[in-house]
Design brief:
Blueprint lengths: L4 E5 L11 H9 L4 E8 L5 E3 L6 H4 L10 H5 L19 H9 L4 E6 L9 H11 L6 E5 L2 H10 L4 E6 L6 H8 L3 E4 L6 H9 L3 E2 L7 H10 L3 E4 L2 H9 L2
Parallel strand pairs: 1-2, 1-9, 2-4, 4-5, 5-6, 6-7, 7-8
Antiparallel strand pairs: 2-3
């Protein structure tokens, strides 16, 4: 049995401010083999890695990403909210993360945050950036916006897609086939071993989120999932190394 991909959720977000270069670099140091991050777009069209639509929680600026030009966003401190030692961390661009991945063997799970703000055309822009970086084979595009995922697959059949969902969907692998999706990014409680097996028989894999408890990690490893999304890549690394 192959080891599942160790996706660091927003980087090593248990130890560093989420979705920053510090978090991405620490994830690699802690044994992550993949990075999960969130992609949004600034007012002037720059693709950036940030989870919330608002900048308030992680930078203190009460403004939406989509209403902020990149020059203003790039001047914001995205680290101090987490700890004084991270003062001066910036919100990275997708381009910066792609460069980091190109210099390693990392798999990238890029979540399109287009459920609240739709960001028309963002799918094609992300795909173009991924192709230009030569990383089409090492990227999974995910979203809670399944219309967006269907569009991604039509634009780039060679890039994997993962359906994000919370509920216990009935026969989710059959639903995945309607989108030509490759993976199910399910909330981890919605993942049972028999579902993992049946999905695999239909060519669909599971990448559950966000798994921080070691017992739950073990359960999912034994179930045969293809990847695990976690805030603690070191915990998952240690479990995998002990197998």
């Amino acid at each position: 049995m192959n080891n599942p991909i160790n996706f660091a959720h927003r980087g090593a977000s248990a130890y560093c401010p989420e979705n920053t270069i510090a978090a991405f670099a620490e994830a690699v140091r802690l044994g992550a083999t993949g990075i999960e991050t969130d992609i949004q777009r600034t007012k002037d069209g720059k693709l950036v890695c940030i989870h919330d639509e608002s900048l308030l929680r992680t930078t203190g600026l009460n403004k939406l990403v989509c209403d902020t030009d990149y020059e203003e966003l790039d001047a914001l401190d995205a680290g101090s909210w987490f700890g004084a030692e991270f003062a001066g961390e910036r919100i990275p661009t997708l381009e910066r993360l792609l460069l980091l991945a190109a210099e390693s063997n990392l798999v990238l799970n890029l979540e399109l945050k287009n459920g609240v703000v739709l960001y028309p055309g963002m799918e094609a822009e992300i795909i173009a950036a991924v192709r230009e970086a030569g990383l089409a084979e090492r990227v999974v595009l995910s979203s809670f916006n399944h219309y967006s995922l269907a569009l991604c697959k039509s634009l780039a059949p060679e890039i994997r897609t993962g359906i994000l969902y919370m509920e216990g969907l009935y026969r989710p692998w059959a639903y995945a086939a309607t989108l030509q999706a490759d993976a199910l990014h399910a909330y981890h409680y919605a993942v049972l071993p028999e579902w993992v097996r049946e999905a695999a028989e239909h060519g669909v894999v599971y990448h559950p989120f966000t798994v921080n408890d070691e017992r739950e990690m073990r359960r999912l490893i034994e179930a045969g999932v293809a990847g695990i999304i976690t805030d603690y890549p070191d915990r998952l690394r240690d479990l995998l190394e002990a197998r």
